[in-house]
């Protein structure tokens, strides 16, 4: 695992000065700070996926959303129609994630007459009249006939109106979505782009909280006008936000903006109404100080940012300090996983990765090396107990194989020593008699953070050896230490006894590449050598490129045996797979999360700059197209 690069990324041009919002950086407070926040806009969406309707005031009732919000949807012909009053997932409907053209259809709802009008880009109008919030069956039948001309059929039938009477919110128990306009302002400044709030399709827009403060409200009760809401979960943003609400064109990759500049995909929150009453534009928003019922909150995903509190700070060396962080999510973590830290300074938003060096119930530990001109590490070294820090994670895969019979070689340089401690602890807990060799390369004995803990643990394990190499020792070598870097011959001797030796590398990129080459030259197979490189944010492009080749190309999905013919009209490789009937893992659909990363044989091109490294021989299916015949592991 290579250490995180703590330097700023260089974006195009000279960005305007960035004004950090205090809630996004570390603070000394222990909870949300009430401010002069107010409702600036109220919007309902009578037809899921289509344009919204602004309101001046509404009356909310417990357990429900805005009146007539998402009362109708358009079945996409990919799933069987609902048979009763059950909630239906969004994948069954036309939605902006895949159907950007929906933004070009204009919708009006006359609350007095109950007449809903949907106008197509060509000027054709569908009218559906409502009785007590339910559409008239004859109007639905007429609308279905027109929709068949407007939208192509799905694999199970034509597009049709869904009207079971159950509101079709994105989540069954979170009926109201809220977006913080201050957060949108911070995003626009970071991306140097205008950002239309309508992209986020919220029911309630709030200003005056301070950027990202909505993330601090998850799990709390909030009073808005005469109502009270429980903030249930943060909103993970997807490809729907790439669509310009005025034109129906995908012209701004909001998930990549979030991922590359802020290190996560979250903006806004979902809530449920727990105390009904009137709500109007201009009403104040305040934190009641009460906690939401934890039984009604979904489990937090590792990617959701949340504020941790610094429990303690322990110096490890002149440049390294370990921070103990009380994590409100209390997530379990595997040895070798890492956290992301999210903060900001006057130059802009920042995020970096740090290995979790220790974990217990509700507390995580990271060890941070302070780098010259390091924008994040300098901030973290100034933190003290009681300060707060925005984090997400844990991230990363399990690093050790379950085969305890294989010898294990852990090689680290500099701050790359951080994952060695949790990995060695895992060996002590699960396979204490496993053969383990730890090789640590540092400049001097003063720059060996965590080494005393590692050697103490190694001394208790019967088949573990710890070797220290110092490249610039200050004075006599400590007992057992070696001067200079380990040579290729030494690495060859370490793995010569067993060709199944499992190796884990962590350190600067050149060091990792040199050691990997030495091990490969010694005959160790590539699959036995692991490292998980950290990376710095990149100033990823925020608009898509056209496909570089018109094709056609043959795409073979190896696992299923399906073959398909690709042309630009088929969209991305993920679109093509879904058209062929495959359901592959995907989340943001915008090149920002890595969920759809797959091995590929053949040539591909990405239509945007991925927010994170993809790796040779792989592609992000959500934003990749073929430039030759290709085969996918899918």
Characterize this entry briefly.
By secondary structure, the protein is of the alpha+beta class. 14% of the residues lie in helices and 31% in strands.
CATH architecture type of the largest domain: Beta Barrel
Give the end-to-end Cα distance, rounded to a whole number of Å: 28 Å
Secondary structure tally, helices: 9
Q: Please, what is the average pLDDT? A: 87
- Overall number of domains: 5
Number of strands: 35
Which ranges are low-confidence, i.e. pLDDT below 50, for 5 or more consecutive residues?
Answer: 1-34
Q: Which topology of the largest domain does CATH recognise?
A: M1 Pyruvate Kinase, Domain 3
Q: What portion of the residues fall into strands of 2 or more residues?
A: 25-35%
Instruction: Determine the structural class based on helices, strands and strand pairing.
Output: alpha+beta
């Amino acid at each position: 695992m290579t250490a995180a690069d703590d330097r700023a990324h260089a974006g195009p041009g000279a960005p305007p000065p960035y004004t950090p919002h205090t809630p996004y950086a570390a603070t000394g407070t222990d909870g949300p700070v009430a401010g002069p926040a107010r409702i600036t806009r109220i919007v309902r969406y009578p037809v899921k996926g289509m344009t919204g309707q602004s309101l001046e005031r509404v009356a909310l009732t417990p357990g429900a959303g805005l009146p007539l919000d998402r009362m109708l949807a358009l079945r996409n012909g990919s799933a069987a129609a609902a048979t009763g009053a059950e909630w239906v997932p969004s994948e069954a409907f036309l939605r902006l994630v895949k159907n950007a053209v929906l933004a070009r259809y204009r919708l009006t709802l006359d609350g007095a007459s109950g007449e809903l009008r949907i106008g197509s880009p060509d000027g054709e109008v569908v009218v559906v009249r409502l009785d007590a919030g339910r559409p008239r069956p004859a109007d639905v039948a007429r609308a279905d006939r027109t929709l068949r001309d407007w939208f192509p059929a799905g694999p199970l039938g034509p597009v049709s109106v869904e009207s079971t009477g159950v509101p079709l919110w994105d989540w069954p128990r979170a009926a109201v979505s809220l977006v913080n306009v201050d957060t949108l302002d911070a995003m626009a400044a970071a991306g140097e782009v205008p950002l239309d709030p309508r992209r986020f399709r919220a029911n309630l827009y709030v200003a005056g909280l301070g950027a990202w403060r909505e993330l601090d409200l998850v799990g709390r009760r909030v009073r808005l006008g005469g109502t009270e809401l429980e903030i249930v979960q943060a909103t993970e943003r997807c490809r729907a936000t790439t669509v310009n609400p005025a034109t129906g064109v995908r012209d701004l990759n909001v998930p990549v903006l979030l991922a590359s500049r802020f290190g996560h995909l979250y903006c806004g929150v979902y809530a449920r109404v727990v105390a009904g009453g009137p709500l109007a534009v201009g009403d104040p928003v305040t934190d009641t100080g009460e906690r939401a019922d934890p039984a009604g909150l979904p489990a937090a995903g590792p990617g959701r940012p949340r504020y941790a509190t610094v429990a303690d700070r322990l110096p490890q060396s002149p440049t390294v300090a370990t921070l103990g962080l009380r994590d409100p999510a209390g997530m379990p973590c595997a040895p070798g996983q890492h956290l992301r830290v999210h903060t900001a300074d006057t130059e802009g938003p920042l995020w970096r990765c740090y290995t979790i060096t220790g974990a217990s119930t509700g507390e995580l530990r990271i060890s941070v090396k302070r780098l010259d001109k390091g924008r994040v590490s300098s901030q973290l070294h100034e933190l003290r107990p009681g300060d707060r820090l925005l984090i997400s994670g844990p991230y990363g895969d399990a690093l050790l194989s379950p085969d305890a019979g294989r010898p294990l070689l852990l090689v680290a340089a500099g701050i790359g020593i951080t994952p060695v401690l949790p990995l060695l602890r895992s060996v002590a807990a699960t396979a204490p008699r496993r053969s383990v060799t730890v090789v640590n390369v540092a400049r001097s004995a003063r720059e060996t953070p965590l080494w005393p803990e590692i050697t103490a643990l190694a001394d208790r394990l019967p088949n573990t050896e710890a070797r220290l190499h110092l490249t610039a020792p200050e004075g006599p070598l400590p007992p057992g230490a070696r001067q200079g870097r380990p040579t290729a011959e030494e690495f060859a001797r370490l793995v010569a006894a067993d060709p199944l030796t499992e190796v884990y590398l962590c350190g600067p990129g050149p060091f990792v590449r040199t050691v990997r080459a030495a091990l490969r030259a010694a005959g160790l197979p590539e699959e036995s050598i692991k490292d998980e490189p950290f990376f710095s944010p990149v100033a990823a492009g925020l608009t898509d490129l056209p496909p570089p080749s018109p094709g056609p190309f043959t795409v073979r999905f190896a696992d299923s045996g399906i073959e398909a013919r690709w042309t630009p009209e088929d969209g991305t490789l993920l679109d093509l797979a879904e058209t062929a009937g495959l359901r592959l893992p995907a989340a943001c659909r915008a090149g920002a999360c890595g969920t759809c990363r797959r091995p590929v044989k053949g040539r591909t091109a990405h239509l945007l700059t991925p927010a994170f490294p993809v790796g040779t021989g792989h592609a992000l299916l959500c934003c990749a197209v073929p430039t030759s015949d290709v085969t996918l592991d899918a």
